């Protein structure tokens, strides 16, 4: 049974293959049965529902685009996008978990790792037996990761790592961190394992957003990282940026899930909430709000399908991903806020998902490239002038 | 072990059903179809039996209906079944017509056990498993909530009014699954990807006359709005009187 039938005003389903639809419906059902009933409680407590990880792994959502020999399902990117969309209909924190494990941990190990690293880590990460995180952002280097001060120096048999990372999803619960640090000024990737001497990952507290997700600092004090934990095919800042492009792609799809959840809640509420003599859905101002939401959802869905098809056929540029991430996050946040207006005072209660999505989207709009940075990336592409250095 | 599972393709249980203009069918516009929920228990049971039996055990999914039933067969294949057979008929069939088509096909295979849902949630007749067993001359237990295999015998627990009944049957058998028999697994992405490589054979469903005809469908009367008798304890005597005399529930 599925109590959520999605939002599909333009028959978008006709643009999807039978497998893509089955994958979407599977994750939709999973979210309805396993995520929606528990998520408000975890959000209220500020806890990540760790018990969902084995179930998420069992249906195959971790590293799902990777080859089957590493535990993947060899899925295409449209299907991956649909997975992100459906997960985020539940909660951005759940989507973030899968997004980080798949796009920011398994993807770099698969793309830049040695055969031994792939064989050691990927199957365990796919099964959810191990959790990973991605350390790029630092307290003083967010939009400007190239300025990072975390560094390694070569020592006998490996490297000595010093520095700190911040805003790291899954950090505290991670068994392995993909950490980016400078070696003689060049950014390289390292696999830093839980328990390595000098490595700690305290959880950041006091978040008003992504409360059902773990966010951490990573602290490295003279951590010895053995030679075999260097990702050998990393050669500069472009490598972590390639990872971010994966994550941004997932976000562009994911936030459509939040949009649908907010629209669905607002539409149902508007039809049943009677003020004066009729349901508020019968008033012109409410209708205008609902139509705005539906229009932006439909535009974002069409944008995503083409984004995914281009990724699958190899014609996607990172600037396309920037445009979709930028637009969809902004519209998702607008939609969440408009949905809250329709719900009136009820909109602030966690009886409805709207305020949670709204708060989550404040983070989602900012992480993996702020709205402003994506504006400048696209701006540079179309004008030829970089507005940042 | 050779296992068959019969599945039907039914409106999502969350659908708000509207009666069609002919007053004999439902309006299918905008209705999402899913695998009959009781059939999911049947598929899960088959998968568990296959895993236990091991070797070259095989699960075949059978369904009677139109092309869209393939979606439901595909769902069962994604859960882990091996192949499917669509017995095609675009015209509606009653339970007898469905049981005849299924039995004709099942006879041409050697199935040790046939799992069905105890009923389909579209027409709710709850008759196909029993009819099928009769046509096949198989033993039968339906509304089954627990199942155990013991050599060539099956011990089945059936839900009966107010309790449970334990029955022993011999293979081959038809089993009608009730909620509680197991916890159906989710399909997996790998299952979905491999399901597209599995075959669904299509053949015309064996001819069978329907023995019943739907002459009318209608919605239950709209729920009356409630009556407020009072807001404090003084309303209780009147409430009790109405519950006893009007509603006749106490």
Structure description:
With 389 residues, chain A is α+β, with helices and mostly antiparallel strands. Chain A is built from ten helices and nine strands. In chain A, strand 4 (176-183) and strand 5 (186-193) form a beta hairpin. The mean pLDDT of chain A is 96. Chain B is an alpha/beta fold and 250 residues long. In chain B, the strands form two sheets. A nine-stranded mixed sheet of chain B has the order 9-8-7-10-6-1-4-5-11, with helices on both faces. The interface between A and B is medium-sized, with 23 and 20 residues.
Give the helices and strands, then pairings.
The complex is a heterodimer of chains A (389) and B (250).
Chain A: H1 18-45, H2 52-58, H3 77-90, H4 92-112, H5 115-126, E1 132-135, E2 151-155, E3 158-169, E4 176-183, E5 186-193, E6 199-200, E7 215-226, H6 238-272, E8 274-275, E9 278-279, H7 284-313, H8 318-343, H9 354-366, H10 371-383
Parallel strand pairs in A: 1-4, 2-4
Antiparallel strand pairs in A: 2-3, 3-7, 4-5, 6-7, 8-9
Helix pairs in contact in A: 1-3, 3-4, 3-6, 4-5, 4-6, 6-7, 6-8, 6-9, 7-8, 8-9, 8-10
Chain B: E1 2-6, E2 9-11, E3 33-35, H1 37-53, E4 58-65, H2 69-79, E5 83-88, H3 95-107, E6 113-117, H4 128-136, E7 139-150, E8 153-160, E9 163-170, E10 173-177, H5 189-195, E11 200-204, H6 236-245
Parallel strand pairs in B: 1-4, 1-6, 4-5, 5-11, 6-10, 7-10
Antiparallel strand pairs in B: 2-3, 7-8, 8-9
Unreliable parts of chain A? none
Give the overall shape of chain A, derived from the CA principal axes. globular
Secondary structure: number of strands of chain A: 9
The N- and C-terminal alpha carbons of chain A lie at a distance of 53 Å
Give the rounded overall mean pLDDT of chain B.
94
CATH first level of the largest domain in chain A: Mainly Alpha
Work out the oligomeric state of the chains in this entry.
Answer: heterodimer
Class by SSE composition of chain A: alpha+beta
Query: What is the overall pLDDT average of chain A?
Result: 96
């Amino acid at each position: 049974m599925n109590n959520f039938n999605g939002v599909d005003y333009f028959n978008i389903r006709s643009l999807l293959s039978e497998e893509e639809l089955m994958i979407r419906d599977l994750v939709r059902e999973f979210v309805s049965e396993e995520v929606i009933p528990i998520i408000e409680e975890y959000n209220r407590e500020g806890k990540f529902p760790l018990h969902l990880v084995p179930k998420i792994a069992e249906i195959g959502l971790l590293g799902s685009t990777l080859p089957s020999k590493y535990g993947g399902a060899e899925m295409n990117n449209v299907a991956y996008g649909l997975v992100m969309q459906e997960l985020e209909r539940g909660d951005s924190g759940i989507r973030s978990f899968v997004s980080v494990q798949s796009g920011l941990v398994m993807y770099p190990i698969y793309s830049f790792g040695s055969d031994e690293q792939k064989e050691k880590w990927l199957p365990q990460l796919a099964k959810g037996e191990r959790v990973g995180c991605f350390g790029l952002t630092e307290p003083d280097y967010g939009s400007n990761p190239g300025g990072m001060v975390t560094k390694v120096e070569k020592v006998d048999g490996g490297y000595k790592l010093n520095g700190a990372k911040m805003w790291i999803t899954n950090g505290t619960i991670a068994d392995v961190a993909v950490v980016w640090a400078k070696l003689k000024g060049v950014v390289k990737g390292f696999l830093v394992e839980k328990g390595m001497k000098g490595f700690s990952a305290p959880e950041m507290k006091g978040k008003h957003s992504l409360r059902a997700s773990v966010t951490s600092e990573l602290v490295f004090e003279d951590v010895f990282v053995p030679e075999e934990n260097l990702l050998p095919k990393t050669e500069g800042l472009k490598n972590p940026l390639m990872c971010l492009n994966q994550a941004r792609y997932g976000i562009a799809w994911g936030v459509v899930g939040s949009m649908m959840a907010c629209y669905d809640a607002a539409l149902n509420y508007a039809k049943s909430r009677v003020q004066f003599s009729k349901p508020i859905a019968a008033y012109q101002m409410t209708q205008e709000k609902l139509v705005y939401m539906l229009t932006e959802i439909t535009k974002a869905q069409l944008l995503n399908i083409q984004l995914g098809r281009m990724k699958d056929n190899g014609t996607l540029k990172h600037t396309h991903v920037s445009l979709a991430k930028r637009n969809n996050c902004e519209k998702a946040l607008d939609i969440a806020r408009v949905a809250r207006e329709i719900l009136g005072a009820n909109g602030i209660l966690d009886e409805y998902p709207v305020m949670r999505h709204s708060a989550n989207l404040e983070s989602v709009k900012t992480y993996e490239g702020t709205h402003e940075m994506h504006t400048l990336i696209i701006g540079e592409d179309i004008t030829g002038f970089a507005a940042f250095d | 072990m050779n296992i068959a599972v019969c599945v039907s393709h039914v409106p999502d249980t969350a659908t708000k059903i509207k009666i069609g203009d002919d007053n004999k069918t439902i309006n299918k516009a905008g209705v999402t179809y899913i695998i009959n929920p009781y059939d999911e228990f049947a598929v899960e049971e088959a998968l568990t039996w296959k895993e236990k039996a091991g070797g070259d055990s095989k699960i075949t999914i059978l369904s009677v209906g139109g092309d869209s039933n393939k979606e439901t067969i595909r769902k069962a294949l994604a859960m882990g079944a091996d192949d499917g057979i669509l017995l095609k008929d675009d015209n509606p069939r009653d339970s007898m017509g469905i049981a005849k088509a299924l039995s004709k096909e099942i006879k041409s295979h050697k199935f040790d056990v046939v799992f069905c849902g105890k009923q389909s949630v579209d027409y709710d007749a709850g008759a196909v498993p029993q009819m099928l067993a009769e046509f096949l001359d198989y033993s039968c237990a339906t509304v089954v909530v627990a199942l155990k295999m013991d050599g060539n015998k099956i011990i089945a627990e059936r839900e009966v009014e107010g309790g449970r009944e334990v029955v022993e049957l011999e293979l081959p058998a038809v089993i009608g699954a009730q909620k509680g028999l197991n916890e159906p697994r989710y399909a997996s992405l790998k299952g979905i990807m491999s399901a597209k490589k599995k075959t669904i054979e299509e053949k015309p469903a064996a001819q069978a006359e329907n023995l019943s005809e739907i002459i009318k469908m209608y919605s239950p009367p709209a729920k009356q709005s409630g009556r407020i008798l009072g807001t404090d304890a003084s309303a209780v005597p009147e409430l009790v009187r109405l519950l006893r005399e009007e509603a006749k529930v106490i």
